Amino acid sequence: MSEHLHTALSLAAKGLPALPLRKGKVPFGNCPACARNACGGRPNMKTPGPCTCPWPCHGWAAATTNPDVIDSGTWARAWREAAGVAYHPGGAGLTVVDLDNAEAMAWARASLPATRTVPTTRGVHWLYRGTMQSANAVRPGVDIKSLMQYTRWLGPGVDAMAVLPDAVRALTVRPPSTARRAPQTLSAPLSTHRGECPHRTPAYLDRGIAMAEQRITEAREAVHATVYRTFLAVLSKHGRCGCLTETHTARLFTAAQAKGESPRHCTDAWTNALTTLGLSHV
Question: Counting Cβ atoms within 10 Å, is residue 158 exposed (0-12), middle (13-18) or buried (19+)?
């Protein structure tokens, strides 16, 4: 039995849902049956959880406390290639405050109640009892990992674990805006090009925009990159025939801004995608 498999089984026995990590400290990619969400089981806010595939698919949602799954033949290859073990904090009723630098650690010592700590390669994890929404970059060098997120297992840590304080929950609460502002859209047309439209029905375009909105909404990390890649995909498919309207771009910008992107970043990402595809001067 490999060291990582032994660790995962030990975590599962303690009620910590475990999963293997490959090189780069990331979960294993989906199997061919689940690639591009072909299985329909990708977790989201409405239906969290893994699909029925026995392979460790869908990132954090693959984490389990079932020893028969962890030590199954279908997971065997993953354990042979594993570079580490992760667990789903929210599934164990926990929240991890990930502090990545000295400034973040100093802030935590001054602002948060003492709790169990686990050293990391760059900083420290502070563990609390209780769950909440996960979020990245809530402060410089501070990430919150709890529901629908995974974190590396780096040991049990030291000191007693405190109850999740309101000060941590407040980190993901956005202050209300003093002015209602409509999501920013482009002030100029997408393109002056009006070629023959290959899309036979408006439903085809609407379906594509809906899928793009979902991709942005479900992003759990690397939101900037996800927004840009999504804009690039939409424009590569629909940007040359002139069928995109400001209503469509507003839907995409609204989805991106709901994930915390600024109007300026949305515009920059859209402009960069146009430039990459050679559409900015068409």
Answer: exposed
